[in-house]
Amino acid sequence: MLDFWLRVKAKLEYQGLTQRELAARIDVSYNTLQSWINRNRLPNAEQAVKVAATLNTSVEFLVTGRRSQNKSDHSRTVRLLEEAIENLQKDR
Questions:
Q1: Residues 10-33, buried b or exposed e (16+ Cβ, 10 A)?
Q2: CA nearest to 11, candidates 44, 45, 58, 49
Q3: In the 8-state DSSP scheme, what is residue 68?
Q4: Where are the beta strands (DSSP E) in 1-92?
Q5: How far is CA 12 from the centre of its chain?
Q6: CA distance 21 to 67
Q7: Between helices 45-54 and 75-91, what is the axis angle to 10°?
Q8: Beta carbons within 10 angstroms of residue 88's beta carbon
Q9: Is the CB of residue 58 less than 8 Å from the CB of residue 68?
Q10: Which of 28, 43, 59, 73 would disulfide-bridge 32, Cβ 3.0–4.6 Å?
């Protein structure tokens, strides 16, 4: 299993949330969330941001396991995510 999902599961457990509750909060079906987890697939950038926000953490932490060194400045992360979302929308 991807470390991303191991970190998500640890955060869920710590916060007392279930995978069903996470799916509802990020507006995907439980089956979709299970498919991502079971097939070792990462969500798209927009969904990864929703997962991180729901779990009160950063996408950087979920992906790398490292905490952001500058918590007050997320401008680079936001810019990268906006670019990723734009690229995803172009591909549709």
A1: ebbeeeebeeeebbeebebeeeeb
A2: 58
A3: P
A4: none
A5: 12
A6: 24
A7: 140
A8: 12
A9: yes
A10: 28
> Which residues are CB-contacts of 24 (< 8 A; sequence separation ≥ 6)?
30
Q: What does pLDDT average to over the chain?
A: 87
Q: Quick: pLDDT tens for 25-63.
A: 999 999 999 999 999 899 999 999 999 999 999 999 999
Task: Using pLDDT thresholds of 50, 70 and 90, give the confidence band for residue 2.
Answer: confident
Cβ burial of 71 (10 Å; 0-12, 13-18, 19+) is: exposed
